[in-house]
From TrEMBL:
Gene3D superfamilies for this protein: YVTN repeat-like/Quinoprotein amine dehydrogenase
InterPro entries xref list: WD40/YVTN_repeat-like_dom_sf (IPR015943), WD40_repeat_dom_sf (IPR036322)
Name of the molecule in the record: NACHT and WD repeat domain containing 2
Length: 120
């Protein structure tokens, strides 16, 4: 679970690589999104407030990026199928300026540039 920086929304990761967005004041469910690349579960969620994006990373290493400018209707902007035998995600870290995401996997490390969504 991640909250928006302003504390208005909660982003909840679930099974089948699905995330649901709730309004914290009313408890209303605003949207549910699903990545088609995975049958796993959302292991990490990142909220990039500078770009109005939500990043879902699943247990198999796949990553999807959602534009959340229209919070009740998020749009998929990028979906990366990163499944490999050695791709179990152990941890992730967002840089302070939100320009890069470090993805630590069981046997490798990847650094993604969040401006172009490419491996740096």
């Amino acid at each position: 679970v991640q909250c928006s920086p302003d504390g208005v929304y909660a982003f909840c990761g679930q099974y089948l690589n699905t995330a649901t967005i709730f309004h914290l004041g009313s408890g209303e469910k605003l949207a549910t999104v699903t990545s088609e690349f995975s049958s796993g579960f959302v292991k990490f969620l990142l909220i990039l407030d500078t770009a109005q994006e939500m990043v879902m990373v699943d247990n198999e290493g796949s990553l999807s990026v959602w534009n959340t400018e229209e919070i009740a209707n998020p749009q998929l902007t990028d979906d990366f199928d990163c499944r490999r035998e050695d791709s179990e995600v152990v941890s992730i870290e967002l840089s302070e300026d939100q320009s890069a995401i470090l993805i630590c996997k069981a046997l490798s490390i990847e650094l993604l540039d969040t401006h172009v969504w490419k491996v740096a």
